[in-house]
Amino acid sequence: MKINFNQLDRGYQKYKDEYDKAAISALESGWYILGNKLAKFEEKFAHFIGSKYCVGLNSGLDALILAFRALEIGIGDEVIVPANTYIASVLGISENGATPIFVEPDEYYNLDAEKIEEKITEKTKAILAVHLYGQAANMTKIKEIADKYQLYLIEDCAQSHGAKHGDTVTGAWGDIGCFSFYPTKNIGAFGDSGAIVTNNDEIYEKMKMLRNYGSKMKYQNEILGVNSRLDEIQAALLSVKLSHYSELRNERTYIASKYLQGLKNSKIELPEIRNLSEHVWHLFIVSVAERDVFQKYLLENGIATQCHYPIPPHLSEAYGYLGYKLGDYPITESYANSVVSLPLYDGMTDQEIEYVIEKVNGF
Ligand SMILES: *Cc1c(COP(=O)(O)O)cnc(C)c1O
Known about the structure:
Layout: H1 8-14, H2 16-29, H3 36-49, E1 53-57, H4 60-70, E2 78-82, H5 87-94, E3 99-103, E4 124-130, H6 139-148, E5 152-156, E6 164-165, E7 168-169, E8 176-180, E9 194-198, H7 201-210, E10 215-217, E11 220-221, H8 232-243, H9 245-262, E12 268-269, E13 284-288, H10 291-300, H11 330-338, E14 339-342, H12 350-361
Parallel strand pairs: 2-3, 2-4, 4-5, 5-8
Antiparallel strand pairs: 1-9, 6-7, 8-9, 10-11, 12-13, 13-14
Helix pairs in contact: 2-8, 3-8, 4-5, 9-12
Bound molecules: pyridoxal-5'-phosphate.
């Protein structure tokens, strides 16, 4: 049997008629940018998160970049960010000229709240919490620290659509929640797109200007903006996907629970779930000491895996200018050497799930 890491066409086929209808309706409308379909999606998505506002953007990275820009965080400022994250989280900070200050992860792969305070200086302006792999970070504690030091709290929810910590959905904890709708994300579009959510009127108005050349009224530019707009076709398609979210979420939970029950191999460490934090299983991460051998073995058996992520941002060539070296973030580095993601996607069959379990257990 051959199992891809992702199989996005199955997600499309599942609600094909609805997607086709939505896309054609957007095409036939004659209005392709900043129209009703985006407005409708933004309203639905804000409601889904439990935030007052949503602003649709080009990508998750744009959401992060514009979030820091809207809060006027830039040169000379420091932002706390998990060392164990996808590089886009960090790019949102450095793109504004601010300095990322890395903090080690806890045993749930997320920002270790106990290690934040020691990194706060008079230059610190914000904490960026990332809900990595689909599991909410320890937001009770992180919010407490942000409030205590009067720091902005921004959330990178690119992997955590709908995941709660306590009674609050990720994205609604902070001043700004940043989302990606990249096709592989839990709520994925059929192209690039992203969004921010906020409860703050001022941030909302500013974000709408930032995404549209800094203007509210055509040709009146109040601030320096960019072009980052979620288009009508993607918005229409995303509305369809969002309307099926509970089924999509249940499906991911079903696959993850099959894995959690079925995987039994002392060489493989399974993911753990934090008390109070929901997991929406964007990725199913296991930890294996002999990671490379494991991946090769699975591939020989037809199973594709991926590694999220093999090089932590502080060791990437791009951030060489920050001057970090191997050994500076040992927990993050050990995760980077041992994590591997098993296939988990919409439309995965029982037979495929069982096959993965059988082969992993046979390692
Ligand atoms: C995907 C992702 C992003 C970037 O989103 P894009 O839409 O691809 O720009 C940012 N942060 C995290 C954690 C992600 O997984």
